[in-house]
Automatic annotation (TrEMBL):
Residues 1-16 form the signal peptide. This is D4Ertd196e protein-like protein. Keywords: Signal. It comes from Giardia intestinalis (Giardia lamblia). It comes from the Eukaryota.
Amino acid sequence: MAPLRSIVWAPIPCLSSLFPMLGHFGITDSVGMIHDFGGDFYINRSETHTIFGPPTLYTQLSEECWSAISDEEWDSALSITMANYQKKHYNFFINNCHHFVAAVLKTLSSGKKKYTIFSLIRAFRLGRTVKKMPGRNAPPASHSDVLGCEDA
């Protein structure tokens, strides 16, 4: 399982080799199940993989900002967003995995915050706590301040 309540990133074959800043995003629920927008009307759910394979990076969201949200609220926001995206067409430029993760975060903030592709990419490329995915027996990661309250 991936770390609980975190954003995960997986490289896209060939594309990520040419453009390392590009990759595939997913978000985990309160038990570590990965959810990622995988194409027209499709949300992938897996304990270990995105549609492009296992995540290689993750970041947990700022505990300061997100700790007031219960696991039930977190999973409910994810379910609401999944239901919406299961009715949507995929578009590489305007409706993709990045938009899906940003929509979950916006739902979690009751629409008060605006998360974008750029804030997600910044979390992984400029954030201080980018981590490689732990092995099965690795300890849980510490929380980070990446994508905290100030990012909206």
